[in-house]
Amino acid sequence: MKSVVTTGRTVEEAVTSALVKLGVTRSQAKVRIISEPVKGILGWIGGRPAQVEVSIEEKPDEVVLRLMRNLFDRLSMTAVVRCSYHSESDVNELMINVEAEEDVLPYLIGHHGNTLDALRNWLTLAYNKQMRDTSFSTVKINMDIGNYREKRKQKLIHLADIAAEKATHLKKVIFLEPMVAVDRKLIHEHFQNRSDIRTESEGKEPNRRIKIIPVDHD
Amino acid sequence: MEKLIRFLVEAIVDYPQDIQIDAHTIDGGSVTYRLYVHPDDVGKVIGRQGRIVKSLRQILAASAHRQGLRVQLEIEAKR
């Protein structure tokens, strides 16, 4: 967070000079009083000026973009980072989309999206650290790189649809491959409104898998 | 690589001024980085079940892999 420490004869004066330095208005800033002014005996002698710290309250997307920009600098990679809120009314969920050159994407995504998860994990921690005492301290951060998550989602749903087709056609219970919890959740939700099949998860992690059960199975 | 490690760690610890990084090159071109952090920050860098250090290693590996390098990261408390 960008901040300056200033002094002045009164708290108000110190704040004003800080705002001028930062180039923002009062409503965009957060003021912390370090010390109140103390009046000296003869005018200034023995007196102490007011000291304040004024910082610019950054918005979640600004913080995220700054962190990501710095990260890509250190990684010596060029990437375009976009950050959007889940919805206009809900600023507590952020979606971060990273676009980069074809040749660096595999490094950023990693095997099964491992690096993507690591980057999101780090970003969440760095964000929480930075925004701990602000009004935006609890934010959920989602991330996608080169549309990897989105494509994977489509592929999973496609596979699940084929399996569901098979299940209803054969009137038999069909098992999908073992998947991680988030992927299973996606498929459960996808079939939630179907009346001809229902889904269940069976088995122990990491081999827990989805069972597609046709309503009229044998 | 050291700059990247420092940046990643500085962003998540409470005592960034205590961060210290040593590099040891082992035969075969693999580099081991030993990261010293304030004792109170060790947990923050490692995380529950080593989740955080795993993420850090993953990011470092990705960066190293792109440059054709291999790196290791070890965490220690600064005395």
TrEMBL record, chain A:
Q: What is this protein called?
A: RNA-binding protein KhpB
Q: What does the entry list under GO cellular component?
A: cytoplasm
Q: Which Gene3D superfamilies match?
A: 3.30.300.20, probable RNA-binding protein from clostridium symbiosum atcc 14940 (3.30.30.80), R3H-like domain (3.30.1370.50)
- Annotated stretches, region: Jag_N domain: 5-55
Q: Which family does it belong to?
A: Belongs to the KhpB RNA-binding protein family.
Q: Which HAMAP family match?
A: KhpB
Which controlled-vocabulary keywords does the entry list? Cell shape, Cell wall biogenesis/degradation, Chaperone, Cytoplasm, RNA-binding
- Quote the record's domain comment: Has an N-terminal Jag-N domain and 2 RNA-binding domains (KH and R3H).
From TrEMBL, chain B:
Tell where it localizes: Cytoplasm
Q: Is Cell membrane one of the keywords? A: no
Decide whether keyword Zinc-finger is in the record: no
One MF term in the entry's GO annotations = RNA binding
Tell me which UniProt keywords the record has, alphabetically: Cell shape, Cell wall biogenesis/degradation, Chaperone, Cytoplasm, RNA-binding
One GO term describing the cellular component: cytoplasm
Q: Which GO terms describe its biological process?
A: cell wall organization; peptidoglycan biosynthetic process; regulation of cell shape
Transmembrane parts of this sequence: none
Quaternary data: Forms a complex with KhpB.
The family assignment reads:
Belongs to the KhpA RNA-binding protein family.
User: What this chain does, per the record?
Assistant: A probable RNA chaperone. Forms a complex with KhpB which binds to cellular RNA and controls its expression. Plays a role in peptidoglycan (PG) homeostasis and cell length regulation.
Protein name as it appears in the record: RNA-binding protein KhpA
Please name the taxonomic classification of the source. Answer: Bacteria, Bacillati, Bacillota, Bacilli, Bacillales
